[in-house]
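Let us practice reading a record.
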Amino acid sequence: MAEYLNRIGAGLILLDAAPLSYDWVPPNVVGREDEQGQLASMFASIGTPGVSCRAVITGNVGSGKTVLSRSFGDDLVRHLSGVRNIQPVHVNCRNHPSTSQVLQRIAKSLDDRHPDRGFSASEVIQGIRRNLRTRNQHMLLILDEVDVLLRRESGDLLYQLLRIDEGRDESGTLSLILISQEQVLDQLEGAIISRFGRSNHLALKPYSESQLSAIAGQRSALATRTGSVSEDILTLIGQASADTGDARVAIELLEAAVMRAEKEAADLQANTATPSTTS
């Protein structure tokens, strides 16, 4: 009997591992409240039919770019319910680094029956447009790590997406958010920059020590039993990750602390449960 496996899923400290993942999107964004307001200002007119909005979000690894944009999309869906049918689509261009892969990802997110091959890029784009129009949806397309795509294929796809409604009676099919560690506007042609606008650039600074502690606190509250992670531990996590300003470091340190506490709790329980022997 593999009794050592009994501690897996025991939940003595850890109740839900999802908040300890980098990819988890929290119900509320911590440490980027001002930036949320700036992003909302860039999308102030998105509730108006026929209107498209655009933004570029840049920042170092772990600065909250993906969490900010994905939570923004989720919040928009709720805020504009009954006003405009927003359909957020997130594509990581590091995982899908070519035009065809990005378009397939978008098409599949809208219709999982979309064929994997047999169509040109322009045909897939117009198919995406028809799908959205048929469902009366407005797509918020988030292209994450878009610099990977741009280095490989320049800005051709962006140009095509920005012109998706050209020559059509109806406009406002999609809005676009680009995410990158680099200032990607400098890599684009003038025609694309003019459509985006240089003022629609949101640059995220590294997190501060207090923000990192707050991020760890939010995630620990949702992942562990109440009181399992003390304020002192959260402060130490903020201090230890402040040099980088990287939320991923703070989350990794939190996970390590929780896993260590879980092991210690399991060991204590096992020792307590072992009957003592007398001679």
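A brief commentary: The chain is about 45% helix and 10% strand.
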